[in-house]
Amino acid sequence: MLKNVTSLEVEIFSKCNRKCSWCPNSVVDRFSENNYMSEETYLKFLYDIKKEIDDEDHFKISWSRYNEPFLDIDLLKKRVKQARDIFPNVILECNTNGDVLRKIGKEAFDGLLLDIVMIMDYDCKGVGHGEELFKKCGVKKLTDIDRKDCEIPLGYKKDHILLGTSKNIKLVKYVANWPETQDIQYRGGVLFDYDQKKNKELVSNYGNKGKKLSWHKGPKDYSTRGMMNTTNLNPRRKEPCNDPTTGIFVDHNGSVTPCCNIRSDVDMHKDFILGNINKDSIDNIFNSEKATKFRKTLKDGDWKNYPLPCKYCMSPLSKPFANKSKIKLIKKLRQKGLEE
Ligand SMILES: C[S@@+](CC[C@H](N)C(=O)[O-])C[C@H]1O[C@@H](n2cnc3c(N)ncnc32)[C@H](O)[C@@H]1O
Ligand code: SF4
Ligand code: SF4
Q1: Each residue's pLDDT tens digit, 16-63
Q2: C-alpha 165 to ligand 3 mean position (Å)
Q3: What is the rounded CA–CA span in Å between residue 135 and residue 126?
Q4: Residue 18 CB–ligand 2 contact under 6 Å
Q5: Residue 59 in contact with residue 7, Cβ under 8 Å?
Q6: Distance from CA of residue 275 to its chain's centroid?
Q7: 64 lines ligand 1 (CB under 6 A)
Q8: Which residues of the chain, if any, have pLDDT below 50?
Q9: Whether the CB of 66 sits within 6 Å of ligand 2
Q10: Do residues 315 and 243 lie in contact, with contact meaning Cβ atoms separated by under 8 Å?
Q11: Across the chain, which distance is largest between two alpha carbons, in Å?
């Protein structure tokens, strides 16, 4: 049984076409080659998940980890469709750097059965470009009436977030001017300078090029939201983390990791791999002694025993669309679509 699990993150292949300076991919090679998860592994995994979860209505699958999922758009469509056939009601979502959408527009969305697509404007092309891109992709901006019906605050970050809807993709979110508007997260400490005991100084290599990126500071002191100041190693995290309890995270090579920050191709994360779906069932992996112990340490707030990637991690961050409100929103947008 996968008790308490409400989300799944899975990488169907490894490649990304960018090397953003703020992303762990700036120091781990995801550019030179593309390694795929086999169809057999993928389908067996989804059917195993189906057997083990008890509440499909409150479940979400995401295809973004550290690749660019739209690079092989035909495969993405196929894999999303396979998931949709197995889980008719689950929320299906994906993040993208938008490069493929900018190139082929609407064609990318045709037959792509996702509920949510989040497009990042890493080149700082701005809100106007986002509106153009929406047109090119057949996405209608949400009107104030739509926003009201779906309980999205009218003024919600309107200066840099565009929200739209299209025939099959219920929510398209465009984040304009990403390197200017977003704060950088710790991401398992890959970009931390352990000699200097502070975050590395990073500059943007895309939009706002050459300008310093800002690290997510969190509040000065610990808060109940589990965030902390990561500009130095003191203070350290003393807050519980539920991510390994509520989520399952799978790399293209089948490795299962405890959260979105920990990945199988980062040396300092290797000890935290929980198992591999090519060799074992997800039920065995998730309920293994190793995984159970890890979750317990993090969930109980046993902070003295937090391992290195967790000691200075500030996840979970405040997320604008937490799982519950996301589900509510997509359900409302699906109903609206039916009435049109
Ligand atoms: C790793 S990406 C994968 C999908 C796609 N390639 C993209 O960039 O949207 C998933 C999300 O992580 C974000 N991300 C990567 N490194 C980050 C960091 N250090 N701090 C904050 N967000 C980060 C990206 O902006 C993106 O929204
Ligand atoms: S943020 Fe996305 S586009 Fe940039 S390197 Fe990471 S995975 Fe690739
Ligand atoms: S505290 Fe640890 S388990 Fe939780 S998100 Fe951070 S790195 Fe992952």
Answers
A1: 999 999 999 999 999 999 999 999 999 999 999 999 998 888 899 999
A2: 33
A3: 15
A4: yes
A5: yes
A6: 21
A7: yes
A8: 219, 222-230, 317-321, 340
A9: yes
A10: yes
A11: 59
